[in-house]
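Hey, I'm writing a tutorial for new members on how sequence and structure tokens pair up, and I'd like a real worked example in the thread rather than a made-up one. If someone can provide the structure for the chain below, I'll link this post from the tutorial.
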Amino acid sequence: MTVKLGHTPKYERIAAKVEEMSKKGASVETIGRVLGTTWGVVRAALTFTRTGKRPYSRPQRKRRIRRGPPKAAQYVALSPQVAQLQDEKRFPFAKIAKQLNIHKSTATRAYDYAHQEALQRAAEKGQTPHRGQYSHISTDVYKQICRELKQGKLTVKEIAVRSGVGISTVYREKYKLNGT
């Protein structure tokens, strides 16, 4: 006797990808964002692949028929604006959220949507995606420090004096540029 399935649950369809990314160390939230789903579905997929048990689900009810086009997610529309505020003005996500009158997690999701390639690379390596870092120094001072560090003509102390920041700030930016 064959049983015909009308629907394969999403957690089953993505289970192999989820297990692969999870073994590399990616978080449930990061995996969910890369695959375009929620952390709950990712957790269900992990449970399914590791134990073979299906998560409890309520019995299916009759679905409502929506009239009109589907409602787009709020973060999709806000993603260019959030990315610009984070990348160019280097605002923290809490400040971006307050300015746009949204939740901090919506701002983070919008930033991830705008930088999907970086999110994908981080998840494949099992790392947390780099979403920038808030800094008290202005963008102009930051660019000046980076430019002078790349030229390599001045010492760290001289760069710090010229830009009006502490030596530790210049060392921190040097470390970020060189990766060591």
